[in-house]
Amino acid sequence: MPLINARRAKRRGPRRFTSRDLAVIGVLLGIPILLDLALIWGPTLASIGLSFTNWDGIGDIHWVGIDNYKTLFSDYPPFWPAVRNNLLWVAFLGCVATPFGLLLAVLLDKGVRFSRFYQSTLYMPVVLSLAIVGFIAQLIFSRDQGALNAILANKDNPVDWLGDPELNIWMVLLAAAWRHTGYVMILYLAGLKSVDPSLKEAAAIDGASETQTFFRVVLPTLRPVNVIVGVITVIEALRAFDIVYAINHGRNGLELLSVLVTDNIIGEASRIGFGSAIAVVLLTVSMGFIVTYLVQELRGGKKG
Predict the structure, then answer these.
(1) Do residues 156 and 164 make contact, with C-beta atoms less than 8 angstroms apart?
(2) What's the CATH fold of domain 77-266?
């Protein structure tokens, strides 16, 4: 019987796809590819092309070369504060919110009492949009009716947490970090649950402390999670828009590149070419961060 089955398998050869199979594969692959081209790469390439033009969205398109970029870098005052704020978002979420989310995940992974309650409570802000988080921040940090000034009893000389350009960016970052921390916590908690317990036991037998075990054994095994968290952190920081727009339309110290893109393309000026140039700068910065991070992580993974 085994010999007969082997002869039959040899006689049949590789399975050939029928026209119906090819049609199904074409539909399953073609629709996502077309949607990706239409919704992602099409607008991206269009923005790159329009960034070299002067167009108000209605009249003729006029080619201006790199004039939009020259104006952007040398004669557009909100640009550099927006770049600084975007980089500050990346640094704060990456160096404060992300490590704090990892710390919470480690603590919850130890099996503390009421861990399910803590997980639900800490993850709850993730289901809120940044616009809602912005409105909540207004309720807390408002100068006249905010909860923080009421708690601090600053009725005579209330602090303008959201109106002072020296303070408002930090208040907004705290609100954004509140949401980001829960997301990072859940990702790392899932990664910690998949770590082989025998690795920790072997490290303990070798005399490693709990801290040494984490940094030398557990954290290297979380490399795939680190890549995901790093990319998500950069994307969240650079695409931030709704929270600052909900507070003061991204002005008076809360300027971001995404807000400048919206103001120029959708605003009264309708400078679509100039707004596209800002969008290309934002795209370049995003790709630079993400590609560099992924290359470093992949190289580290191959060495490990």
Answers:
(1) no
(2) MetI-like fold (1.10.3720)
